[in-house]
Fold:
Amino acid sequence: MSFGLLGPVGLSACTATEAPPPAPTTEAPPPASTTEAPPPASTTEARTIPPLPDSGDIDAGTYLVTSFAENFEITVPDGWSGDGDGLGKDDPDHPDDMAVFVGWWHSDHVPTDACAWQGALVEVNPSAKAFVDAMMAQTSTSSTPPVEVVVGDYSGVEFDLSVEGDLDIKACDNGQFCVHSEYSNLCTRWYSSAAERETYRVVNLNGQRAMFWMVQFHESINPELTREARAVFDSIVFKVRQVTS
Structure:
């Protein structure tokens, strides 16, 4: 900064003008962009589950089934085949005979007596409790007490079922041991042998029933097949639908 000097000539004053401060050496930042950068892409992709084929041999994998009020998933190993309402596998030692089966078709009639079933198929309401109560009251069958289970996001009960004592199935109505049916005048699920064993799982879908069963058809089945069938049976899970706005 320079100062004005008082000069001797003519006693006149002369004041010098101050110089402006130097310009700043730091440049201003560029204006912010008005366009926001897109968010980074999610690293998690939505899981797509294929529908279970209607029939034929099934490739190993997890499938979606839409038979009930809510959809469920089921995981199948190699060697299983389907018919739309269930999955089965043959016994390698008896290739013409199905060894194990996991089924889930609709049934809304339960006979009061599984052997003398003609004229005794009683319609039950759509609740899980109604079906379980009817099965527990059914005569000619032997069942274990129902135990509570969880099937994905829903609860239910599980019990085992078999023929009571040494009953002769050939002496039953139409030669069939009928445990439940879709109809009031004919049977759609019956035993052809007293050696059959089943495990049932009945699920409460907010008042609507979903019912599954696992069958072992013969006593001489390889235990590995039974364990495999149980794994398929246990893989069934319901997922509550996510509602988006």
Confidence is low (pLDDT under 50) at residues 1-19, 31-35, 41-46.
